[in-house]
Specification:
One of its GO terms (cellular component) is cytosol. The chain is mostly helical. The protein is built from 14 helices and five strands. Helix 1 links the parallel strand 1 and strand 2. The protein is globular and about 75 Å long.
Amino acid sequence: MSKQRVLSGIQPTGRLHLGNLIGAVENWVELQQSHDCYFFIADYHALTTSYADTKNLADDIRQAAIDLLSAGVAPEKAVLFRQSDVPEHAELHLLLSMLTPLAWLERVPTYKSKIEELKERDLGTYGFLGYPVLQAADILIYKASRVPVGEDQLPHLELTREIARRFNYLYKEIFPEPQAALTRFPALPGTDGRKMSKSYRNTIAISDTPDAIRKKVGIMVTDPERIKREDIGHPDVCPVYQYYKIFARDRREKAAKECREASRGCVDCKKELAQVLIEYLAPIHAAGRELEQEPKLLDNILKNGAERARAVASATLTQAKKAIGLA
């Protein structure tokens, strides 16, 4: 039996962080063992919110590729490429935008919330309103059957299915309706307790040095009701304890017990967590240093990935254009 095809992408808007790692990348590494995986660096998508400042875009794309490969994405098991190297994404996006009702885009839950979250930027653009259509094109161009997403992305995936159904109804049955492959972990809290996000500047990057990790963990918010060390703690509401449940499962019960008994202070808890994260990321850092010494290897991986992706995307685009009557 042929493997199910999986498609997922990640934006290069700054260095990838721990939320990206446990929410997406580690899932990709697992899926590539048993699925036909296409993973891409979504540089077109990065422009939807960062079009006014692209001076670091090339470096961010390169760092994203290093982070993904260092974390275990393997070019011999999965197709890894840069979105803009496969122009079929953009052309299918154009075709799908012709048939997508405006009301469908305006009702996407993240549309207004993202504008509020990034209110210092001008997001009143066609590209930002229409980015769910580009997302649909990314998925449908490979006829992916599964898409790894968090729960907050489910409305986007449902929109993709609606667009696929509308195309199939208007023209010809071309596109399958992709299903979600939900990530195992909820959103990881950032250093300020909110969801870890580059927009909030509260991230711990995959490529952060040990000193940077210690500094960032050291300023993390904890149980707001625990003011003094002798105060009884409530680990279930503490962002630091959420990290123990993911990165230090063998220590979480002891940490929770000592927190509730006030025999462990927040400073001690943070110091231990910082060391846990440093050790967790050590293999990724080592792999990253090797890749940084091999720029041609990195370029070749992305080039070969784009060629493999284009072979599939071009065939799908030809089918879609013929169905519409453009070929």
